[in-house]
Amino acid sequence: MNLISDPPIPVKIQKMKERVRWMHPSFVQRGIDQTSIVLDDQRKDSPEFSFMVIGDSGTESHSRYHPQRKVAEMMLTHRNDCSFVLHTGDVIYVVGSQEYYSTNFIEPYREFLVGGDNPKGISYDRMVFNLPFLPVLGNHDYYDIPLMYRLFTGTTSSLRRLLGHQHIEIGWHGSYQGNAYARAFMDYTQAIAPQELERHLDQHYTAKTDTGRCLRYQPGQFTRLPNRYYTFRYGGIDFFALDSNTFNTPSPLPETQEGEIYRRELVHRRQEIDREELQILGICDRLNPDKPTEAEQLDDLSAKLDQINEIKIDIEKQLASHKMTAIDFEQLDWLRSRLIESWNTSEVRGRVIYFHHPPYVTEATKWHQAQTLAVRHRLRWVFEQVAETLGSLIKERSIVDLILNGHAHCLEYLRTADTGFADSNINCIISGGSGHRPRYQRQGSTELMETFAEIKGKPTRKVADSLLYVGRHDYNSQNRLPYSSVRIDVLDGCPPKFIVRPLVVERIGEEWYNRELEPFVI
Description:
Blueprint: H1 9-19, H2 25-29, E1 32-39, E2 49-54, H3 67-76, E3 84-87, H4 101-106, E4 133-135, H5 147-153, H6 157-163, H7 179-185, H8 194-204, E5 207-209, E6 212-217, E7 230-234, E8 237-241, H9 257-286, H10 292-319, H11 329-343, E9 350-354, H12 370-390, E10 402-405, E11 411-416, E12 427-431, E13 447-451, E14 460-470, E15 480-490, E16 498-508, E17 511-516, E18 520-521
Parallel strand pairs: 1-6, 2-3, 3-4, 8-9, 9-10, 10-12
Antiparallel strand pairs: 2-15, 5-6, 7-8, 11-12, 11-14, 13-14, 15-16, 16-17, 16-18
Helix pairs in contact: 9-10, 11-12
């Protein structure tokens, strides 16, 4: 049974292009760069500034506890010191449906929105932020419900329960291939009448960068993003926001006996988790969310269903990998050229990239996903090209100073080792524990090993170390659930230094505790 579906990569790319009128003559004639924004926040440009990072937040508890709101309340104590908020994806669970924006985004983050004193009066496609809020797409922001289920959920109450209308926040709709996210955050020019488009561009695309005119992001007035991937410069740091959902296709399974054995194992695993899913759905259907103990059990089971769906989709991507040749080279080429341009700009002293799927992670459900390795290889491929072009210009520095991700429901700090490639010695922070049920770290070593088939002799080497992990623990004793965000202070200097301040709200039993972990410098 497939409760959710993931659109093909070409569909994601094409739909998003249509929504922003990609390369429309009105943009081209004005020399507009549709991948750049300028944050016009009226603050003095300073090399020292702070920002916050959250991710995987868009859910609401069945019980009276609202972890996402607790995280938001802790963020509020840092709001006045921070210039913007980055969101690493999965803004809305489970399928990015517009009907959940009110409860799962607008309500918990109401103070960050104009008109937040009346959150119910804010439409999801009319949000204006009083502090720049800069997200990227997560996999759940693209997910959909198969059409058959959408047709039946309106008339069959038992099927509504089975599909989790009450239990797992699927609802009546899917994301419509990322459409809800696009309407919520992007400059959805597809909806603007042709006769109004030029006036709109002349009003809002007034900022200037080295690549041409671009969209001006004005807190409190006009807070839209130009595209699903984009870049901005702040305090001498270039930020690159990516859509990793279009370059996470696993490599094809080898046409060998070992490949065929692995394929059969995947099919068998898929059958096993289908049976497990049906068992969990049956239990969910018997639980009453109005009873506190059963509501808590529902939260755990809903998180388990979400995990099962992730595994199923990853298996499906692997089984179809010989047919799924689509990779978003257009975006990857854009990243390559913009990184090279950034390195050749004297006023830029550092680079940060953020996207959803982490290339390095020790959260138990993510390390073995084929998408993890696919994203790592695509990013490494780009970095290798950048390093080859720049040559001695980069000296002893890494291509980027910091990588920020979500997807894994935890807070984790990793640093890559000497991988033998241009992704060596990079600091990585995963901020994916901002609302959805936290998950545990894989058992065993915190060293991440990778096998390189093309290397003879010792093909397996360490590629990263996990230096901090905040996630679920103590399963069989006291229930401890830590949710998190991160504040990052950027210091003056070249290369820049970053002070990382983990912000954690933890529920132990019936009580909530706020705790700021010891800051560390990277």
